[in-house]
Amino acid sequence: MVFNQMKSKDMSCQAFTGQFDERLDGRLDESSQAAFDAHLASCTSCRREWDAYNAVWQALARDEGIEPSFGFAERTLRRLNEPQVAIHWWAWRPSLRWASLAATVMALGVGGWIGHERMTERRRAEAYARIQHADYLEDFDVIANLDQLKGDKQL
Questions:
Q1: Distance CA 104, CA 54 (A)
Q2: pLDDT, tens digit (0-9, with 9 covering 90-100), for 29-79
Q3: 8-30 confidence digits (pLDDT tens)
Q4: Is 0.85 topped by the overall pTM?
């Protein structure tokens, strides 16, 4: 029972806060305005919320705002119609130009070094493959031990 009363009170508070704009603008009819004022007098949380809402709108109403200078609209429209100038990379600040040049040189250098290493590894693999298929591998032990031969046995 208590839960249902709290739920119905929340619903009336939601309906109450939904009428803030109408009450502020004076668009509520007499019966709705009387119900609004009665709820405002009985509900402390809604009264605080209404006071804050009303205070903000009163402060905004007091603000005079800023008037644009004479010819603002014409100047703005003229600037919008001006052609846009493309900014090329060489028009950047010198530090950005040098940084981009250094990054390009570094990228090319690293790419070249990696390419050289891959080419070296490829050549080694090709040489190893040629050696694997060579006919003189049968005599590898003899060739590897040629320096141990002594005496008259010379090639």
A1: 61
A2: 888 888 888 888 899 988 999 899 888 888 888 877 778 889 888 998 888
A3: 444 578 888 888 888 888 888 88
A4: no
Cβ neighbourhood burial of 119 (10 Å; 0-12, 13-18, 19+): exposed
Q: What does the longest C-alpha to C-alpha distance in the chain come to?
A: 134
d(CA 39, CA 16) in angstroms, rounded, equals 8
Domain residue spans in the chain?
2-62, 89-143
Give yes or no for a contact between 51 and 62, defined as CB atoms under 8 angstroms apart: no
* CB-based contact 58:24 (threshold 8 Å): no
Question: Cβ distance 32 to 19 under 8 Å?
Answer: yes
Helix, strand, or coil here: 84? coil
